[in-house]
Amino acid sequence: MSRLFLVRTLSILASIVLVLQALDLLSESGNILAVSGNGQAQILTYVGLRMPQIVAFVLPFSVLLGTILTLITMNQNSEIIALKAAGLSAHQVLAPLLLASLGVAIVSFAFNERVATRATATLDQWKAVDYGPLPIDRGDRSNVWVRDGDDLIEVAQVKGRREQTRLGGITIYDRAGGNLVSIIRAPSGHRVDGAWRIGPASRFDVASGDLIPMGTITVAKDVRPDQFTLGSVNADGLAFWDLRRAISDLHDAGRPTKSLEGTLWHKLSGPLSAILMPLLGAVAAFGIARSGKLFVRAVIGMGLGFAYFVADNFALAMGNLGAYPPFLAAWAPFLLFFLIGEAVLIRTEE
């Protein structure tokens, strides 16, 4: 029973991923090939980075459909009736699917942590440069903007954390009274004695139009490292423990973290949603197939499953807006539909 469930789940997963990847590639291939020098290799790179995101998104749907398809087949062949006639309760009939879905949830969590987050971080950096040269370092911050008084500082790439923070591609817009006075550029910079040492720097004077070499200079004495490293936290591109450390750093810096905390908890509740699918789809397993209500039961199972995904996305969105506490936003739909599934199963079969 578990083998049948896993085979059908993986088959549905492969089919859906193939279709969604083809549709996504049709919409993005033009943007990728618009960059000079990009070709088939870049298309394949995009597929390799985008597919883990699609797999992570589709896997719970595939478990739901695999559950319903498995149980419908067993019901039509009177296997469920035979199991119940042998003295098994409804929960005992579903036990193999629940154990198999627990394994799927564990694999899903590991896949998201080791593959999907890294692919997301790299793909986001690649999109930030409009599919230009692919960034090599994963997990770095890119295109970070920081204000220093009236001045604006743009950093193309930020590496490291705290006092080990390294800046690359620095542009400082020196302003006075809202007017641009000069533009200072430097390829690299690092933290020294509470300030930032950048170089070799060059200064473009707006009034005269002169470009003046300045060598190594010290700037932005009032800018903290966390303003660069925490200026843009990509929650989907960080693994669970990395995101937890980022949230801790943001909290220490006095930044709001509610939306990130909701995403952090959802990294656990999301994969565990696979365990709910056999319970929500169990309505398709029971009832006599020849009664003509098997299709209705399958539709009810799919309706319960898709209602969970709608409620989950709604709660997560409300958590990002601050209307729900982070823990409630991530776990309330899971607990609610677990109780609904149990209530339906006990009321109808137990």
Automatic annotation (TrEMBL):
Its main location: membrane. The chain crosses the membrane at residues 51-72, 93-111, 294-311, 323-346. GO terms for cellular component: ATP-binding cassette (ABC) transporter complex. It is a multi-pass membrane protein. It is found in: Cell membrane. GO terms for biological process: lipopolysaccharide transport; transmembrane transport. The keyword Cell division does not apply. It holds the Pfam family LptF_LptG. Keywords: Cell membrane, Membrane, Transmembrane, Transmembrane helix. This is LPS export ABC transporter permease LptG. The lineage of its organism: Bacteria, Pseudomonadati, Pseudomonadota, Alphaproteobacteria, Sphingomonadales.
